[in-house]
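Morning F.,

Quick status update on the modeling queue. The single chain you submitted on Monday has been processed. Sequence for confirmation:
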Amino acid sequence: MFEGPLQDVIDEFARLPGIGPKSAQRIALHLLDEDPEDVKRFQEALGRLQNGVTFCRICRNISQEDVCRICADSSRDKTLICVVEESKDIQVIERTGEYRGRYHVLGGALDPLGGVGPKELNITSLVQRVGSALPDVATAEFDANNEPIVEPGPEITEVIIATDPNTEGEATAAYLGRLLRDFPGLKVSRLASGIPMGGDLEFVDELTLSRAFAGRTTL
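Structure tokens below.
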């Protein structure tokens, strides 16, 4: 055990997911030896994390602006929505280069024992996106109430459910499948096998995820 501020920093790093006591100690000692300007830049970056990050008003992805870069990209396929649990899952899918549609972040998965039900997730906004097509935000104009004043964009033709292949993710996929299946002309699909049961999408390699996209099945 160290004393004073150094031990305080070690304890704080050890609270982070995936960082054990030894890793926390190495990081803290590294910062102790760093140039003061580098440490100051690190402190400022942490400070901006709380105030400089927001969530896209369309897909709920982490964003620096009101609309994230993916929703604002006019080259993306506006008729496809890939539903993921967390924003980190989008980064994994984007690295495959397999998918060129848009996303919707639920903010978690259904977990009744953990107190997470449909109301705790961004499910209502997903249904609204499917039920009434949104305008192309890359060219849309908005009024004083931030409401679109252009004609709606193309309707959603497919929702791809890419929740984690574990108990909570499967329950969420089944719930969304039942919720969306009555929309006329809408295809609801689930990523195909190739992703191990009980795993997290975050740790799946790009090749496996690409094959899962290519072989997705209709619910």
